[in-house]
Amino acid sequence: MENNVSADMTNEISYYAGLDIGGTTVKAVLVNDLAEQAGPLTEVRSLVKNGYEATFGQLDQALDQLAAGAGIERSAIKGIGLDVPAPSSDGVIWGRANLGEDWVGTDIRSKLSARTGIPVFMTNDGNAAALGEYALRPKHLGSLMLIAPGTGLGGGLVLPGGRSYEGANGLSLEVGHISVPFREDDGELPTCSCGLKGCAEAWVSLVALRRRLRLELAKPEWSAHPLNEGNTPVEEKAFKLREFAEQGDALAVQIFKQQGFILGYAIADLVRVFDPGLVVIGGGLAETSFRDQYMAWIQEGFADRAWPVYRHSPLDAMIVTTEFEWALGGDAAAAIGMAYTANELFN
Questions:
Q1: Which domains does the chain have, with CATH numbers?
Q2: Of the candidates 19, 18, 3, which has an alpha carbon nearest to the alpha carbon of residue 57?
Q3: What is the pLDDT of residues 159-191, one digit of tens each?
Q4: Which of 5, 73, 123, 256 is 20 to 30 Å from 295 by CA-CA measure?
């Protein structure tokens, strides 16, 4: 009799999937109704360039693998959190970004829900990663702002209680496209990938790293630098820059120091608007051996721009009003955020 009751209780457990659609892979996480991860992180190939129907097929694979990994039937999955690498509002994609053409103007949330028979929540990848970092800090009750340097410069804001701030049209927290007053050696503002000039992303991103490296290697002082040897494209050289920085190379350190300072400077203006209390820095630099130094450069830039009240309480100078932390979730943060959000919404 006891075994039957136990089996019945097991059958009543609900599960919630987080699906993170990237340009290369779809990462997926499953949690149960107690918000405990069930089974391992799953990754399948992303087919976003081939259209949303092709991607839906990959999402089906991910859901099947999640169910198999947790030892459950797929029918036990009662909610899906989905994030997309593009601006969206109320389930509809607003811009193409790195997606195929048929994504734009399509109600992806409704179509996926109809296909799977499961309710779906959808947001962009920056919001999803911010929600993941919030979920990984169960003792943190305030708001949280995520800033994530990568190919571009993304971010998200989570309000107290765990709800992301998306804006009226799902277009908020485009943190990479606020203006910063830094100029190139010739006095010009750098052009951002969005077409505007002087954006923070034009200084803090992989794309910016390539530009800065190309400009620096053209200077006589770096003519004998190892990265100037051979005919390797600058795109490949930029990927080696972290390794050089970890070895204390002067050129690499100079470039990352500039990036960190400008990032902190930009964060100061974001903090002045949102006052989150906690700023989490994501991206690949969180995994480097010089990350503590990089964080120090961020805080130098922040201190240069932020009012004193955004750094320390006027009542007690020992109380820090804006904390900085490295991200905890790594590449899985967005999928984790979507799984936890689906649990919150559909449980």
A1: 2-125 (3.30.420.40), 144-327 (3.30.420.40)
A2: 19
A3: 999 999 999 888 899 999 999 999 999 999 999
A4: 123
